[in-house]
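Final report, section 2: Outcomes. Of the targets proposed, Vanillate O-demethylase oxygenase, putative is the one most frequently requested by collaborating groups, and we therefore present its record in full.
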Amino acid sequence: MTTLVRNAWYVAAWSSEIDDALRRFVILGDPVLLFRRTDGRVAALEDVCPHRQLPLSMGKRIGDTVQCGYHGLTFDTDGKCVRVPGQDRIPPSACVDAYPTEERSGIVWIWMGEPERANPDDIFDLPQFHDDSWHMHHGGALHIKSNYLNVAENLVDPAHVSFVHETTLGNSASENVPVHVSTSGEEIIAWRWIRNSEPIGFFKAFGNFTGNVDRWHYYHLRLPCTAYIDFGSADATRQIAEDDRDSGTRILALHFMTPVTETYTIDRWMHLRNTAVGSDEASDKMDAMFEIAFGEDKEILEAVHMEEQRPRKRRPIRLAIDHGPMVYRKRIAEMLERERTDDASAPPDGSYIIHS
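The predicted structure is given below as tokens.
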């Protein structure tokens, strides 16, 4: 049974990845053709010609249409066939799916589900995207041989940082610090503060902290698989309040997970920061540190996924720190169930009295 939610917005690519060329991507197991129309907007089509199944990305553009490279069937950006060489009649079944797209903040979003349900207002956004006092920097893309659920769970799990990222994003000072979890809103949030402790490697290198700091990690996970981590540090002698994080060195690390298949996920990552605004040198320095830390995650997640494919001798255990991931799995299951069924219910007519 699939784990892939279709009625949701996913990141198809960075804006910088899409130009006039015909480019093939795979999203939720489906081949997708992306290119920029002559008006600059991003077109997204099913990347399979319905005639002989050749990828349309192997054809060529003619204005805002795509001509199949095998027999010349030509499709517009709505997926409709507009020409069949050698005959006037165009079969009604000569069409491909067209997917809604939106482009914001250098990110191309795509909707792979029922088109009529695509609401651009549901696309992930943060106030810091539009705040000139914050610096936005697009990073890279982590290709992970793992189901996206494992990748997403890792991004609402502060507890792993002390052990997986000992020299980069964590250290032993946080091993026994309680993790707080909230699942009451749209986002699943897990967080903790580590007071008056040695700065982690990231902020030794970037924040230039030498004495002890108060530091925080807030992990936000929005379904189905967009996450951002609010983390930072401030000099411990200042004893800043939890809602005064902007007065410290604060980073928002964003992760946009795109399920390619059930066993392969692309995690495109970027960051927003309230310091070193406009500095390319700072961006490069942070990229290098993030690449090390995210490489550590990749190694762990791929090993976990591989072991999950083996027959199990015993049932897996769950700990107190797993509350956020468990709620996440439950909500994904509910989303999938809604997609598998049609709600044909009507208001109660007296036969059933519903109390809720």
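The longest strand covers residues 249-261.
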